[in-house]
Amino acid sequence: MAGKVVLAYSGGLDTSVAVRWLQEKYNLEVITLTVDIGNVPDLEAIRQKALKVGAIKALVIDAKENFIKSYVFPAVRADAVYEGQYPLSTALGRPLIVRLLVETAKKEKARMVAHGCTSKGNDQVRIDVGVAALAPELKVIAPAREWKMTREQTIKYAQAHNIPIPVTRASPYSIDENLWGRGIECGVLEDTWNEPPDDIFLWTRSLEKTPARPAYLDIGFERGIPVTLNGRKVEPVALVQKVHELAGRHGIGRIDHVENRLVGIKSREIYEAPAAVVLLKAHLALEDLVLTKEQLRFKARVATEYADLVYNGLWFTGVRQDLAAYVASTQRYVTGTIRVKLFKGNCQVVGRKSPYSLYDYSLATYDKGDVFDHSASPGFIHIWGLPVRTQARVQPEPPE
Ligand code: ARG
Question: Which of 145, 181, 221, 253 lies at a CB distance of 3.0 to 4.6 Å from 274, suitable for a disulfide?
């Protein structure tokens, strides 16, 4: 044998074929690593399958808490949404998988790691670049990028090698899911004129089937991290799951995004991300209350940069760490409660409070109790308008 390789293993067709292919093509001993960051159906079944298709060792790691605490919540604090739409579910999971792959390779004394990504997506970049950052000595193999088999040929290969073909392969879609979201692409979705068929959605009800009455939810944040629901402390993973369930029931969290991939392709992806949509919106609403205009504006720019870095596979970089430090600093007073109303696909912020709120009733009110100094306004306007008057005098407006 030429050595050991640790393969990131989902239990699906491609990574199962990869186990055998790595043995045949490179004469490697394959150790599989399955990372559970949400919605992995049956870890033990996946482990058994890995062994059955020829892995010498099959490892599984429950990384759900790690995922939410170290990747998802930092992204909430950063308000990280790619191109204004995609909450980065898949993209946030990749650096964690990379970290665990690298750790496992070290423990198992493997000099190689492998993954099932193809050559057209973002994930190959995220994993290859991530490994290069954490463990440049490791060689990365991407069988599905090398083997040049079509879907049909892959199935034939599986049949010829006695590799069980999952029933889900009947689905024409390519799906990736974790606690933060579910991405669906391929099949009829590749025509941007096609409305997404209802049966692709699993986490969100269609509007015809959502409850006739709204649900209210109070989300409590401490320094930008969601910690309570309706006043009760809830652990990170359970919190995301609870918001997910309630929002999904009310049809919230469907996203239809024509996104710009890192490899230059525009792709149409449908997401279901009920928890992400609600938590990100609530977090922003709290920031509106406690950050100044200037802080909010600058933070919005940082959010765009941060989201791009995560999307583009640059998690393990100095610039991402620097932005995260800035974000952390902005969150020191982002503590308070946001009330959302969930109804017919909409998440509406209907209440906000914080001990650090900059909203001052006595300044804002038009009723009695007003303390705003009305007599100061004309002087302020006089100074504010000074450069405008100067310019208008010296540089008259061109004729229309
Ligand atoms: N396009 C998204 C990304 O690059 C999600 C990919 C999800 N994968 C899938 N097979 N639907 O992060």
Answer: 253
- Domain enclosing residue 276, as ranges: 177-353
Q: Which residue is closest in CA terms to ligand 1's atom 8?
A: 176
Could you read off the pLDDT of 207-220 as tens digits, one per residue?
999 999 999 999 99
Question: Quick one: 161 and 205 in the same domain?
Answer: no
Whether residue 299 lies inside any domain: the answer is: yes
The span from the CA of 309 to the CA of 303, in Å, is: 10
* Claim to verify: residue 159 and residue 272 sit in the same structural domain: no
Instruction: Give yes or no: residues 151 and 254 share one domain.
Output: no
Nearest atom in ligand 1 to the alpha carbon of residue 311 is 12
Distance (Å) from CA 334 to ligand 1 centroid: 31
> Does residue 14's CB lie within 6 angstroms of at least one atom of ligand 1?
no
Q: Is residue 378 part of a domain?
A: no
CATH of residue 348's domain is: 3.90.1260.10
pLDDT per position as a tens digit, 308-358: 999 999 999 999 999 999 999 999 999 999 999 999 999 999 999 999 999
Supply the pTM of this predicted model. Answer: 0.95
Best residue for ligand 1 mutational test, from 123, 125, 262 (most atoms within 8 Å of Cβ): 123
Residues 162 and 16 in one domain: yes
Give the pLDDT means over successive 10-residue stretches in the chain (400 positions).
93 94 96 92 92 97 98 98 98 98 98 95 97 98 94 90 74 90 94 96 97 98 98 98 98 98 96 98 98 98 98 98 98 98 98 97 92 95 98 93
Please give the Cα distance from 243 to 378 (Å, whole number). Answer: 48
Last residue of a domain, one of 353, 371, 387: 353
Quote the CA–CA distance of 336 and 287 in Å, as a whole number.
10
pLDDT for 195: 97
Starting at the edge strand found earlier in the chain, the sheet holding 254-260 runs 174-178, 181-185, 266-272, 254-260
DSSP per-residue codes, 258-282: EEE-TTS-EEEEEEE-HHHHHHHHH
Ligand 1 centre and the CA of 176: distance in Å? 6
Ligand 1, residue 89: give the atom nearest the CA: 12
Q: Is the CB of 89 within 6 Å of ligand 1?
A: no
Residues 277 and 336 sit within 8 Å (Cβ to Cβ): no
For residue 122 and ligand 1, the question of a CB distance below 6 A is answered with yes
